[in-house]
Every structure is written in C-alpha cells, then in structure tokens.
Amino acid sequence: MAHQAHAYHMVDPSPWPLTGATAALLMTSGLAIWFHFHSLSLLYLGLTLLLLTMIQWWRDIIREGTFQGHHTPPVQKGLRYGMILFITSEVFFFLGFFWAFYHSSLAPTPELGGCWPPTGINPLDPFEVPLLNTAVLLASGVTVTWAHHSLMEGNRKEAIQALTLTIILGFYFTALQAMEYYEAPFTIADGVYGTTFFVATGFHGLHVIIGSTFLTICLLRQIQYHFTSEHHFGFEAAAWYWHFVDVVWLFLYVSIYWWGS
Amino acid sequence: MAMAAFRWKLWSCGLSRLTASRTPAARVIARPMASTGIPTDEEQSTGLERKTLQAIKKGMDPYSIFKPKEYAGTKEDPHVVPATTDKRLVGCICEEDNTAIVWFWLHSGNPQRCPSCGSHYKLEHHELPH
To answer: Domain Heme-copper oxidase subunit III family profile spans what residues (chain A) (predicted)?
Structure first.
C-alpha cells in the first residue's frame, strides 16, 4: 500500500490507453481500406482490439475500486464529474443531428416538393410501434430508479429483479426498433428524410445497446456483491446514461416521429 | 460547527447515507430488518477507501479530504499548519483576491509570521498515514 498523505488514486502504469489508441488508428484506416480496397481485415482487427481494450480497462477499474479500495470519496467525486462531462458531450453529439433534421424539415426545398414529410415519403405512424417504444423506455426509467432505491435500502432481491426488468425492457425496445427498421417503407437513401431519420434514430439505437450493456455489467456485479448500499457509483453512472438515452428518445419521438410526420 | 461541515462535505461527495450513522443516537444501520443481502461500506469497504471512511467516522481527516479549519491568524489563534516533516511551504494570500501569493517555509517550533501581512502560522506535526 502506497504511503500517501492524500486521498487520490495514483494509477499504476497501464497498456490500455495505448491499445485503445491503436484500435482507433486501425478502425479509421480500416474503414478507408474497406472503402477503397474492399478488405475488412484491418477494420475487424481494430474492432477486436477495441473490445479487448474496453473489457480489460474497465475490468481494471473494477479491481482498483471494488477490490483494492482506491475509490475514496474525492476519487468518486471525480468519477461523477467525468461521467457528467461525458454525457454532456453526447448531448452535443445528438444536438448536431437534431440541428440537421430541423434545418431540412423547417424549410423543405422544392426538390422535396416544398413540404415535410417530402413527397413520396410515407412516414411511420407515431401512434403505433413508436408510441409503444416510448412507453417501454419510460417504464425502464421507472424500473432503473426502483433498482437504485432497492440498492440504497439494502434489498438485494428487489435490486436484482428491478435491474433485470430494466434490461429486458431495453432489449424489448431494441427488438421492436429492429423490426421497425426492417419493415419501414423508406430507407436511409431516400433523400434527406431517410438520412436524418436513420442517422438520428440509428445512433440512438446504438446508445440503447451501449446502455443495455452497461446495465448488464451492473447486474452481474450486483449479483456478485460488488455494490454496497452507500457506494455503487458504477450503477449510478449506468442509470444516468440510461436516463440520458430515454430523454434523447423523447426528443426524437416528438421531433422526428410526431412533428415530422 | 465542524460536524455540520463534515455532514455537508459527505453529501457533496455523494455519501448521504453515511450521515445517518454519524451521531451516537442514530447508530442504527439505516436499513429495515426485512431488506437484506446488500453489504454496507462498514462491512465491505477496503484499502484506502476504508481508511478514509473509518477516520471520518472518528472525526479525523488524515488524508486532508476536507477544507482546513479556519483560524484568526493572531498570536493567540495562529493558523495551524499540519505537516509530516519538520517544515512545510505556506502560501499566504494576505488579503482576499490578492494575486501575489507570499510563499515561505514554515519550520517546526516557534510560530512564524507572514513577511507581508504578519499573520501567525504554527507547524503541527502529524504522522504520515500508513
């Protein structure tokens, strides 16, 4: 144990930032190679390295915090700031796509028929599957809050149940959305409508998958007694991310599905 | 006063649960008998986290998590500067919003005064926490 007079965590040297950067290089150049030379090898290599980096880096953080006790109150505070800043950056990411959507839909060009939805586009009925999806995500927000309260109250059984239910709802959303994508009468190539629809909802869907994965890791950790009733920041971070995903969907639903129809 | 400051600090560190067991009267574990299965920090914390939490429970702050106590800086009530060695650097911001910090070494023994504003400082020896 290091003899330090402060409560911060001086992290041991780690190879994962380097492997992560290497993965980023392989993925970007791999994408270019795929575009020009029809080979996916470099891209696959990059993705594999990315997956290995994430698993091992976050595994190490769990070891440092839960098993070695390095996450003192000030360290935890820093992690909270970090997660908030990250989610804020994601908000700006989505803001860009909403900007693009409103730019094209508020003043539709003559090429589109001067109207929105553009001529020839049959939008999805917002009161069918999209409305169900809204209910599913809202319900999952309730269940994740239930899980948090169960955690704080020391109720293991209910915490596991509520977290499992949240994850099931997340998968249900993803399955419904995948079906919608398959059945949709328009594609990403159908003008600016298709582009804005599939890029915005597509990135949202990716974030739902990321959030579901994060929650699943939390479920596995909760089953293995990692969390205490006072200290469970990994779970809180996952819950914040999940609420963010839910809020983005609400904006997507109101803007693209409802107003945009 | 110090207790209230501790309590506020713990809240801002996201550990509102801890404040429930601060006073002897509220020593009950804040969890009803029916809910079980999730360990508490008391049961499961380890390493440096455990050391900081146990120290906080005893009203101590060996890792300088909280803001230092405030002193008048007079001869009767000098600024007490904790140190693990015989001397420590002090930076005196004589008046609020001063941008020129007055730096000087504070040695163990007799209190010293800031060469600029004359506030009194006294070194207080602490063992390195281990």
So the answer is: 4-261
User: Would residue A187 be called left, alpha or beta, if left means φ above 0 and alpha means ψ between -120 and 50 degrees?
Assistant: beta
Res. B27: pLDDT tops 50: no
Tokens matching residue B96: 């609020």
B48–A156: do the CB atoms touch at under 8 Å? no
Which residues of chain B does A4 touch, with a Cβ-Cβ cutoff of 8 Å? 63, 129
Percent of chain A at pLDDT exceeding 90: 98
Residue located via tokens 């709802």: A169
Sequence-ordered list of residues with C-beta below 8 angstroms from that of A177, at least 6 positions apart, any chain = A133, A201, A205, A208
Interface residues of chain B, partner chain A, Cβ below 8 Å: 10, 12-15, 17-18, 31-32, 35-41, 43-53, 62-65, 84, 128-130
> Which residues of A fall within a CB distance of 8 Å from B18?
230
pLDDT tens per residue across span A156-166: 999 999 999 99
Using one digit for the tens of pLDDT, what is the confidence trace for A121-140? Answer: 999 999 999 999 999 999 99
CB atoms within 10 A of CB B33: 6
Q: What CA–CA distance (Å, rounded) separates A58 from A67? A: 13
A136 contact partners, CB below 8 Å, separation of at least 6: A169, A172, A173, A176
Q: What whole-number distance in Å separates Cα of residue B41 and Cα of residue A75?
A: 16
Domains of chain A: 1-70 (1.10.287.70), 72-258 (1.20.120.80)
Cα–Cα distance measured from residue A131 to residue A254, given in angstroms and rounded to the nearest whole number: 10
Size of chain B, expressed as the number of residues it contains: 130
Task: Kindly report whether the global pTM for this prediction surpasses the value 0.90.
Answer: no
Mind listing the pLDDT tens digit for each residue in A19-78?
999 999 999 999 999 999 999 999 999 999 999 999 999 999 999 999 999 999 999 999
**Which amino acid, residue A121?**
I
**What is this model's ipTM?**
0.87
